# Entry
Amino acid sequence: MDSKQHYWLLAFDIEKSGSTADFDTIAIGSTVLGSNYRVLGSYLGTSYTLEETKFEKRCQNEFWSKNMDILEKLRNDKPISYAQKQKDMIVGFVEFVKSWELAAAERGIKLYKVSDNVAFDVHFLNIMIHEHCDGMLPFPYNFVTQKYGTLWETTSMQKSFLLAVDPTTIQKDWGFKKTLHKLYPSLRKCPVAHDHMPHHDSTGIAYDFIGLMEISAGRHKFIK
# Structure
């Protein structure tokens, strides 16, 4: 772990077999970057099995049927129960977060925790934390100190930045990152593909967050 950073950020993402709590979270991924874009650590936990994971029909038809190669990579064939795979996945994620909370506190470094969709991802993560992590308070609490904290959401941040320069943003549902890169062409692009492997996608989330922080610090020229 490198202490020569202005800040660290821990980005996270999940994949599910359906859009509601009736269906499972099948993968959790997280990446820690320094403010210089250096990758400091990553986590991937999976619980998908061919036999036991139940899929929402819409989710299967519209999403996973088009990403079967990724689904296969998320397969967990360990000789343990499905319930234990679910528990190991969330406990492993919580322990990963705790390790970086401790490291940041020991080094006096600011640690940002970031998602691209807090309402969705954190909702399902907190269900699993409640079910499998005895006595652990949910996000946005700090898992080590159990004190209330803050989560950041890149999509909301992108909307806020764009509203300041383009009021028509309020009429849009998608494309915020693409628009930002057009307006600030010097923004650094993530070299890791957004492929629905959650530890890869969380790297892209981290890049988005650092870019927004750099814009706020005046490090990128605005081109209208």
Summary: The CA atoms of residues 163 and 169 lie 6 Å apart. Strands lie at 7-16, 25-34, 39-46, 110-115, 152-153.
